[in-house]
Write a structure and sequence with these properties.
Largest sheet: 8 strands, mixed
Helix content: 25-40%
Radius of gyration: 31 Å
Distance between the termini: 26 Å
Shape: elongated
Number of strands: 20
Structural class: alpha+beta
Strand content: 15-25%
């Protein structure tokens, strides 16, 4: 059944594009309010109530009513330009942090006094709280960049005392304002600024959640991250920490002589990892392209070209499920180092992550993690993570044999049909579920996830992977059928993956062909044959170590977060409703983006 497109009617008051039904509802509500206003008391009665704070009645409005009222006020200011609610520029002389550092020292300004040196400062930020003490005295909490300072506005300090009441009647919680005034302290000793002038720089048209209750609803926090950042200092601190983590990794690699590069986001083949890709379309070339699932193959081609140490930090895209530790697009760091092997990379990983934890904690290698996300509650389960080198190492086949009480087939037979049958029976025996296609690699991966990964609470390495699980890794120099690869785990979840790179083009072609066979069996995550990459290997890739780490998951564990959405500024969310704008065709159900 056809439905009318959302947003096809313009609201004459707010200028929004809304549905016809919503427009009718608003017009009915406005007519009711106009009728109520016509019965309001005479102007004299209003003057008697002038002492009441202007926001009292507004606080009783529901969000839609408040938005309409505030929109009308701001539209009126736009028409009268008295003042302009959206000025182009406000000159800021210092940040709120700098203001606190400069004037906040004890004894610099005595309680109940102002700085008498004639200094004036101009600050800007967002108003969070407003407190009124009569018509001639107002207090505001001004927030900016994670800091707060009080504005103590009095009529006697105003450059234009006659317009004091009218000026301050404009401001609401959430407005962005500029203030120029003298550094001061209240009688109770709180650092403040006493303004000679205050200017609206950008109004907030919506009701802010109350400062007492804040913004707690998880869905709203993820969908409206801007509101989350406005109201929750913890969110701001978390993303500051994330930035520090990324910058530390970048500096660590730069100091080892690595070069940061950028590789394509779209390509004709999705290679470099085992994952299902997103598909997009290039109109001019009339080609379907894949969003990259890893930058690996391009980076190794650069090593062939003589860039011996390269790395990239960027987004990759995998068309897979969303859960507490997975998001369809995420940030990865990959580096490739000529003349290094898996053992060198394990040492580097330990040094990098241990140093990072010390940097974040001020010297300690230990962190506490709450796996159930109930930090602060009585009886909350907590894990102590120790990042001190060396990390524990689990041999994949050896540990599975120990845990399951079996002897695995020889390594050089792990790819055979006989082994597949044996692995299926082993999974059934131990109630390990594996969906189709039940390839040898997937069955082994499920067993590892069930019996080894939960052992890795503090950071640990799983080593000794079969070749069938690692199409791009070099064979083990002393254990037939295995390859030189390790995965780093923390709190039972993978955080990094690395190996001595396969640089034999003949063997690489055979591995790609095996991946094609797995794809034909129904494994959407298997790779195809990348002829350009094989051509690069034919020109000679030096012995190389390659390494990749998921930044988001690492940030989760280092910031005591149990949901990956907490550490992504804009996580993937299911739409609340599918609304099609006029002239826009709805997306079909394919994998295209």
């Amino acid at each position: 059944m056809a439905t009318e497109p959302t947003g096809s009617h313009k609201d004459p008051v707010t200028g929004e594009l809304i549905s016809k039904q919503e427009l009718k509802r608003r017009e009915k509500q406005r007519a009711k309010e106009a009728h109520k206003a016509a019965k309001a008391p005479a102007p004299e009665a209003k003057h008697k109530a002038e002492a009441k704070p202007s926001g009292t009645n507004e606080e009783e409005l529901n969000p839609n009513q408040y938005f309409e009222l505030r929109s009308r006020q701001i539209l009126h200011l736009k028409q009268t330009q008295s003042p302009n609610p959206y000025p182009h520029k406000f000159h800021v002389t210092c940040s709120i942090q700098s203001y606190i550092e400069t004037y906040g020292a004890e004894g610099y300004i005595l309680p109940g006094t102002k700085l008498d040196t004639g200094v004036k400062e101009s600050l800007a930020g967002r108003i969070h709280n407003i407190r009124t003490s009569g018509a001639k005295l107002k207090f505001y909490d001004l927030h900016g960049e994670g800091f707060k300072v009080q504005i103590m506005a009095t009529q006697q300090d105003a450059a234009d005392p006659d317009s004091f009441v009218a000026t301050h009647d404009i401001f609401r919680r959430g407005d962005i304002v500029g203030v120029t005034g003298t550094p001061s302290r209240t009688k109770k000793g709180e650092l403040s600024i006493s303004p000679s002038s205050m200017q609206l720089l950008s109004p907030n048209l919506h009701q802010l959640p109350s400062s007492h209750f804040g913004l707690k609803d998880q869905e709203t926090r993820y969908r409206k991250r801007y509101l989350d950042l406005i109201l929750n200092d913890n969110t701001r601190r978390l993303f500051v920490t994330r930035s520090k983590i990324v910058n530390y990794i970048r500096r660590f690699l730069d100091n080892l002589g690595f070069m940061e590069v950028e590789t394509p986001m779209t390509s004709l083949l999705a290679g470099g990892a085992t994952a299902k890709p997103f598909i997009t379309h290039h109109n001019d070339l009339d080609l379907d392209l894949y969003l990259r699932i890893a930058p690996e193959l391009y980076l190794k081609e650069l090593v062939v070209g003589g860039l011996d140490r390269v790395y990239e930090i960027g987004r990759v895209f995998r068309n897979e499920g969303i859960d507490l530790t997975h998001n369809p697009e995420f940030t990865i760091c990959e580096f490739y180092m000529a003349y290094a092997d898996m053992e060198d990379l394990m040492d580097m990983t330990e040094a990098m992550v241990e140093g990072l934890v010390k940097f974040l904690t001020g010297g300690s290698t230990k962190l506490v993690y709450h796996p159930d996300g109930n930090k602060g509650q009585e009886g909350a389960r907590q894990l102590e993570l120790d990042f001190k080198r060396p990390w524990k190492r689990y041999d994949m086949i050896g540990t599975l044999e120990e845990k399951l009480g079996v002897t695995f087939p020889p390594g050089d037979t792990l790819h055979t049909e006989e082994t597949n049958k044996w692995l299926r029976e082993l999974c059934v025996k131990h109630n390990v579920e594996c969906s189709e296609p039940r390839t040898n690699a997937r069955l082994l991966d499920k067993l590892v996830g069930e019996f080894i990964e939960p052992l890795c609470i503090s950071p640990a390495f799983i080593v000794g992977h079969p070749q069938v699980m690692s199409p791009l890794a070099k064979w083990h120099r002393s254990r037939p059928g295995l390859c030189e690869r390790f995965e780093g785990f923390l709190c039972g979840k993978e955080i990094c993956n690395a190996y001595t790179e396969l640089n034999d083009p003949f063997e690489q072609r055979l591995r790609f062909e095996e991946q094609v066979r797995q794809k034909e069996q129904g494994d959407d995550e298997a790779q195809g044959i990348d002829e350009t990459f094989i051509d690069a290997l034919e020109h000679g890739l030096p012995p190389t170590g390659g390494w990749g780490m998921g930044i988001d998951r690492l940030v989760m564990f280092l910031t005591d977060s149990t949901n990956i959405k907490e550490v992504l500024l804009f996580p993937a969310m299911k739409p609340l409703e599918v609304a099609t704008q006029p002239g826009q065709a709805p997306l079909d159900s394919s994998d295209q983006v």
